[in-house]
Amino acid sequence: MARVELRHLSRRFSGVQALADVDLAVESGEFFTLLGPSGCGKTTLLRTVAGFVRQDAGEVWIGGRRVDDVPVWKRDIGLVFQDYAIFPHMSVGDNVAFGLANRRRPRQEAAERVARALELVRLPGLAARMPHQLSGGQQQRVGLARAIVIEPKVLLMDEPLSNLDAKLRIEMRDDIRDLQHALGITTLYVTHDQEEALVLSDRICVMQSGRVHQVGTPWEVYDRPATLFVASFVGAMNVIADVPVAPGGQVALGASPRALPALAGRDRVTLAIRLEDMAVAGPGAAASPDALVVEGAVEKVSFAGREAFYRLRLDSGAELAAHVHRPERRTLASPGARLALALPVARLHLFDPATGVRIDGAA
Ligand SMILES: Nc1ncnc2c1ncn2[C@@H]1O[C@H](COP(=O)(O)OP(=O)(O)OP(=O)(O)O)[C@@H](O)[C@H]1O
Ligand SMILES: [Mg+2]
User: Fold this and answer.
1) Which tens digits make up the pLDDT trace of 313-338?
2) Atom 10 in ligand 1: which residue has the minimum CA distance?
3) How many whole angstroms separate alpha carbon 36 and alpha carbon 209?
4) Domain range for residue 128?
5) What percent of the chain has pLDDT over 70?
6) What is the CATH number of the domain that holds 321?
C-alpha cells in the first residue's frame, strides 16, 4: 500500500496538451478513478505514473519516494490493460507467474502464489489452461491475477472492462471492487463509463482536455458537480443555458420568478437540474419558497411502469427532460398537453455562464 502523489504534471504531444498541471493525491488503499471523455488524458496520466511516459513538468511520488528517475519495473506497480495483454502461447499459470519469474522466486513459493492469485480472481485450478480456452472475462481475470501476484504497492487499470459484454462487465466490476477491498491495495483506475466510476470508486477525478475539473466522492461529483462539464458528463442533466437574472437575484423562468440569494448581483446564470429531481406540479401551480415552477407543452411521454419519461418544451423555448418515479395516471399527459414541473431549489445547480464554474449557495 502506498500513497501516490502527482505534483503539477504537464505533458504535451505535438500540439496537444495531454496533461495540464494535474495536481492530486491518491491516498493509501484508496480506489481512485480517472473519468473523462476520449482524449482527455486518462491513459497518459496512468502511463506517467507507471513510468512509460515522461512528463514535461511536475513530479510523481509513490509511497513517499520520488520516482521520476525510477524505471517502470522498479516502481512496484501492477498493470491491467484493456486488451488483456496476456501471452497466447503460455498457460494461464505461466502467464500469472511471469511477473514473479523476473523476480527470482523459489519455484515452490511461486507456484503457491500463482494458485492464490488465481483463487483471488475466482479462477481456481485453471493454471494449466491455455488462453484460447478461456472467455474474454476469464482472460481479463488472468490479467488481473498477473498484476496482483507480485503484491504491488499500486494497481493501475486502464479500462479493463471495456472489451467485455454488458453482463460480464457488471459481474467483473463487482469482483474488482471486492478484490480491491480484500487486498486494500491503492488503485488508480481509468474509465470513460460514469456508472462504472460511481459504483467502484472511493473518489473520482473528472478530467477534460488534460485538466482536472473535480476530485470528489461519487456523491460529491454527482450531487455537487464543480463545473457544468462535470454536471453534464456524470449522469443525465437538464441544462438551461444563460437565463437572465433580475437585480434582486430573481430567475426569469416560469410564471412567478423566485429570488435565489446566490444570484444577487449577477445578470445571467446557467441552470441545471437532474431528470429525476423534478416533480409534476398541479395545473396552475405557483412557485413556492422551495421550488420554481415551469410550464410547457408535452412533446413526448413514455410510460415504463415504475417510471415515466417526459419531454417538455418550455414557453421560453428551452427543452426539459423529466424522469418521474411511480407516475400517477392523471399526470400521464399526452403530447400537446400543458404540464407544469416543480424544480426544487435545493436540487438546482447554478453555473457561471461564462466560466462554467459552480455558483454555490443555491438553496
Ligand atoms: N504518444 C502520443 N503521441 C501523440 N499524441 C498522443 C500520444 N499519446 C496521447 N496523445 C494525445 O494526447 C491526448 C490524450 O490521450 P490519452 O490517450 O491520454 O486519452 P484518454 O483519455 O486515455 O482517451 P481514451 O478514452 O480514448 O483512451 C489525445 O489527444 C491523444 O491523441
Ligand atoms: Mg485511454
Assistant:
1) 988 888 999 998 887 777 777 888 88
2) 13
3) 9
4) 4-228
5) 95
6) 2.40.50.100
